[in-house]
Amino acid sequence: MPPGEALLPATVLLPLQSALRAFFDGPDSLGGSFELLGPARRAEVLANYLCGSNQDSSSSFSPLPAAEAQPPPPATQRKQRRALLTGCFDLTHAGHYNALRQAKAAFPGEDVILVAGVHSDEAIENAKGAPTVLQHDERLEMVKACRWVDEVAGDLPYAVPVSLLDRLGCDVAVHGDDLPRAPGGGGLFDEVRAAGRLHIVKRTEGTSTTMLIGRLLSMSKDHLPKQSAEEKVLDSPQLVSNEALASMASVTPISAPTWTLLPTMSRMALFYSDRPRYLSAAKRVVYAPGEWDLFHVAHVRFLQRARQLGDFLVVGCYDDETIHRKKGKNYPLQTLHERSLNVLACRHVDDVLLGAPWQVTKDLLTTLNVAVVVTGQNCLYVEPLTDGTSDVLGMGDPFLHCRADNILQVIESTCSLTMDVIAQRIFDNTAKYSQNAKEQAEQDYNDSKGFVAES
C-alpha cells in the first residue's frame, strides 16, 4: 500500500477501535490467549472476529497450544564425531588442557566425543630417552579430571596409525601444529594425515613439560654452578634438606625465554565457557584458596572432596608475589595465569579467583556468599596462631575470619604426591633430563611456526 493511503475509510475508525477493545479486554480475556499465536494465526483469528464469522468468534475462540503457536525449528540430527587426542600428559599443564579443549571444540555443530589417549611409560621413554615424571596411573587420573574429556585410553603407543583410530572407534585424530617425528625421520601422524583423518589445532605457546622440568632443575644443588661462600642463597625454597640448603650456592639468573604463555582474555573466557553451574544459583559455596603450582593428582583429589562439601566450588589462586614471599627463590614454577588455567580445566571447579588475597577476608566471604572454606592438613595454618606460636612466614593467619565464623574445614590428604616428591623424581634423573636437544627442538618449532587459529 502506498504511504499515506488509508486501508479503510475513516468512518469505520471508531467502530474498529471499539471492536478491538472488546476483543482484547472482553470477559473471556481473549487477548492473553491471542498473544500465544503465531503471526499468520493471529491475522486469521482477528479477521474472522472483526468480520463476524462464526469461526473463532468470541464465544468459541480456542487458541492453538503455545507449542503449536510458536513451532520450534525442525529438529536436526547432530552428527556425532569421536576424536582422539594423544599425549604424554606429563606434569600436566595449560598446554595439555588447551589442546584437549580445542579438540572438543574443533567441529562446531557436531557432538564431539573426546577420547584422550595416554602414551605408556615405556613408549615415552623410548621416544624421549628419559622416564616420565608422573607415573602412568597419575597421568591417567589427571586426564580423567579434565572437564572436556569424555573417555580415556591408556598405555597407547607413541605413533597414531589408522588401525589405532579404528580400534578405539574414533573418526579423527587431533594434534597440535608441532607434529612429532620418529627418530628415523618419519612423521608419527603421516598415516592418518594421508587418510584424511587428522585435524590440526593450535599448540599453546610458552608452556611445556620441558620448561617445567628445567625450572625445577634450576633449584637442584648438583645441577647449579658453584659460587663463592659470600654468595650463599638466603632466599632458598624449602625443597631440599637443610644440609643441602646450607651448601646451596646462588646462581646467575636463568635468561628468560623468548616465548611465554600469552594469557589473552579470549583464551581465559574459552576455558571458563559452558559451565553447568553458576554462583547466582548456588546454595552452598565452597572456597579453596591455594598455590596450585605444578597442578597434580593430590590437588585434583583435594578439589573433588572440597566440591562434595557444597554445590559450587570457587578456587582462589594466590598471585606470584604471595607465593614467592611464602616459599622463596624461583617459586612459583608457574605463573598465576598458567596455574589458573590448570585449575579452570578441572571438572570439579566452578570458578577461579585470580590473585586471591592471602587473608580470607569478611568481604570475600560475603561477596562470594561462601559457606565453607577448606584447606589441606599440611597447611602451616591448620591450627590457629596463639601468643606462644611463632608465625614462621610472618604473613599472618589467612583463616582468622573463617575460624571466627566457624566455617573452616580441613581436608585430609588421600595422596602421597607432593611438590617435593615430584622434584625428587626429577633430581634423581637429572642426567636423563638433559635439556639441550629438547630446548633446541623447542627453539626450532618457534623459529618456524606460523599462525594457527585457536578453536
Structural write-up:
The chain is α/β, with parallel strands linked by helices and 455 residues long. The protein has 3 domains: 16-69, no CATH class; 80-201, HUPs (Rossmann fold, 3-Layer(aba) Sandwich), CATH 3.40.50.620; 272-421, Rossmann fold, CATH 3.40.50.620. The protein has 19 helices and 10 strands. The strands form 2 sheets. It has a 5-stranded parallel sheet with strand order 3-2-1-4-5. Strands 8-7-6-9-10 form a 5-stranded parallel sheet. The two termini are 49 Å apart. The model is unreliable at 27-32, 55-75 and 220-257 (pLDDT under 50).
What is the number of beta strands? 10
SS-derived structural category: alpha/beta
**Share of residues in helices:** 25-40%
- Rounded average pLDDT: 80
Q: In short, what is this structure?
A:
By secondary structure, this protein is an alpha/beta fold. The protein contains 19 helices and 10 strands.
